[in-house]
Write a structure and sequence with these properties.
This protein is an alpha/beta fold. Helix content is 43%, strand content 16%. Strand 13 and strand 14 form a beta hairpin. The longest helix has 21 residues, at 259-279. Bound molecules: pyridoxal-5'-phosphate.
């Protein structure tokens, strides 16, 4: 027998209350029974997104909310700025180009955060730019971008700040309304502690104004139609009823813990993981601006990262993520978001110590675990 541990930056583990809720017999979606569940989930989403605006619930993976944001707010030929610091930044640009937008790429070295002055420079030079697209947490590099500073740049301008918060919302503080973020999107399989299949999008008043004149083609991801349906406690097309039933439960868990405590837990787990990695001599990919969702570390010289990830998964039952693109085979990404706590970190760090040793790397057993324990103890009275 091999017990399995899912410690990847999405999909993430699902708590028992959500699993049980989703295992209930199917109900029809055009009923007061489902509308009640939907309303409760929609209200709790506003709490987690820290907004007074509606949070649209779409049956799609997170990318659906990204695509929806582009097609509902822009027209072909519109100019946008894309912060490209990894796979997901690149995705903003690819979607934009697919719809005929003109992209001003700001390329950021993997593992680094964007310098807000680089964005300001392009905004100053190109007054026609209608949107700035960025990740709060670039999951492919485990770096966090300075969303608050970027929001200050677009505030009061005829330009939207559109934030992919897919591994940010519910992980660290991104107060949408307070900071003046115009679009914030997320997805169910990250900090929302659910299987994949739901995407979320919240739009500011300014963004809804852009929506009125946007001419990109669209049908399924029609935000205006979704907002109208949301007011009637439903969605335009058949909602993912079981996922939304689970969503209500996972959101209740977040509400009970309290958003600030949720952020503090993620911060503690992230610091412990970084300390453990450093103690083991593993170099961090994003030491200067790390995301609290996941920690990327370089595997030691001479160790094949791809084989290490496979060994951890197939032999030890521990699913971590590797690197992508040019970091394929060179990186381990240890997730600490969603339904995770102290002993998930202990498990991932100790498994890395053991696997590295199996791969012939000299490891002092317990060195990483001990460094993590010191920080994790903060979580107890
Ligand atoms: C997971 C993720 C996405 C969305 O991916 P999907 O596979 O479409 O759910 C987008 N952005 C970031 C930062 C992510 O971590």
């Amino acid at each position: 027998m091999r017990k399995k541990y899912l410690l990847a930056p999405g999909p993430t583990p699902v708590p028992e209350v959500a699993l049980l809720a989703m295992a209930q017999p199917a109900i029809h979606h055009r009923t007061s029974q489902f509308s009640g569940i939907f309303r409760e989930a929609a209200d709790l989403l506003k709490y987690v997104f820290q907004t007074r605006e509606d949070v649209l619930i779409l049956a799609a993976s997170g990318t659906g909310a990204m695509e929806g944001s582009i097609v509902n707010l822009f027209s072909p030929g519109d100019e946008v700025i894309v912060v490209n610091g990894g796979k997901f930044g690149e995705r903003w640009g690819k979607i934009s180009e697919a719809y005929g937008l003109k992209v001003n790429w700001i390329n950021v070295e993997w593992g680094k955060a964007v310098d807000p002055s680089a964005v300001k420079k392009v905004l100053d030079e190109k007054p026609n730019v209608k949107g700035v697209l960025v990740q709060a947490s670039e999951t492919s590099t485990t770096a966090a971008h300075p969303v608050k500073e970027l929001a200050a740049l677009t505030k009061g301008k005829d330009c939207l700040l559109i934030v992919d918060g897919i591994t940010g919302v519910g992980v660290f503080d991104i107060p949408m309304d307070d900071w003046g973020i115009d679009v914030l999107v997320s997805g169910s399989q990250k900090a929302f502690m659910l299987p994949p299949g739901l995407a979320f999008a919240a739009l500011s008043e300014k963004a809804w104004k852009f929506q009125e004149t946007a001419k990109c083609p669209k049908f399924y991801f029609d935000f205006k139609k979704e907002r109208k349906n949301l007011k009637d406690n439903t969605t335009a097309y058949t909602p993912a009823t079981s996922l939304i039933t689970g969503l209500r439960e996972s959101l209740k868990l977040i509400k009970e813990e309290g958003l600030q405590n949720v952020f503090a837990r993620h911060d503690r787990l992230a610091r412990a993981t970084r300390a453990a990695s450093t103690a083991l001599g593993l170099k961090l990919l994003a030491p200067d601006s790390p995301s609290n969702a996941a920690t990327g570390v370089f595997v030691p010289e001479g160790v094949d990262g791809g084989k290490l990830v496979k060994y951890l998964r197939d032999e030890m039952g521990i699913t971590l993520a590797g690197g992508q693109d040019h970091l394929k085979g060179k990186l381990l990404r240890i997730a600490h978001l969603g339904y995770v706590d102290t002993f998930d970190i202990i498990t991932s760090i100790s498994s890395i110590e053991m696997a590295l040793s199996k791969f012939g790397h000299k490891v002092e057993f317990g060195k990483g675990v001990g460094a993590a324990q010191k920080i994790l103890l903060e979580g107890y009275k």
